[in-house]
Specification:
By secondary structure, the chain is mainly α. Helix content is about 50%, strand content about 10%. The protein is built from 7 helices and 3 strands, in the order αβααββαααα. Strand 2 and strand 3 form a beta hairpin.
Length: about 140
């Protein structure tokens, strides 16, 4: 045995301990969580992403990860400058200047104001309705770091 037995943990505790869990495939993320939380079943993990305790985000490396919602602010503080630098060239190519990005924040704030989970397509549609995310992957590049 490499480590003492773990106490049962909630999915959010596992994700918080790991900082983030890759979540391109939700089923793989659930398995990663279950493997680290003794006594956790698939049913225990399934409701967690919709509970508000976990957020599925592109915060790390441009791939989807689950992070604890309580950790999002400090994690974003750590990676913010890297994200800005990494995306600057592509945003410039798409004509997404600072003014457009700031306008999109208002649109996104309104679209997400009820704090309900949204599909990416719904968020991009909100940007397109405001004539911000029209074509050429502009909308996608505004919502992903």
């Amino acid at each position: 045995m490499l480590a003492p037995p773990r106490e049962p943990a909630r999915p959010v505790d596992v994700v918080r301990h790991l900082i983030g869990v890759q979540a391109q495939l939700p089923s793989a993320a659930a398995l990663a969580i279950r493997a680290r939380a003794s006594g956790t079943t698939a049913a225990d993990v399934a409701p967690a992403p919709g509970s508000g305790e976990l957020i599925r985000t592109w915060l790390f490396r441009g791939t989807l990860h689950l992070v604890a919602s309580d950790d999002l602010d400090w994690l974003l503080g750590l990676v913010r400058q890297t994200i800005i630098a990494r995306t600057a060239r592509r945003r410039s190519e798409l004509g997404l200047d600072d003014e457009t990005v700031h306008r999109s924040l208002a649109v996104l704030g309104e679209a997400l104001s009820d704090a309900q989970p949204r599909y990416r397509a719904d968020i991009v549609d909100a940007l397109e309705s405001a004539a911000i995310g029209s074509g050429c992957q502009r909308g996608l590049n505004l919502i992903r770091p």
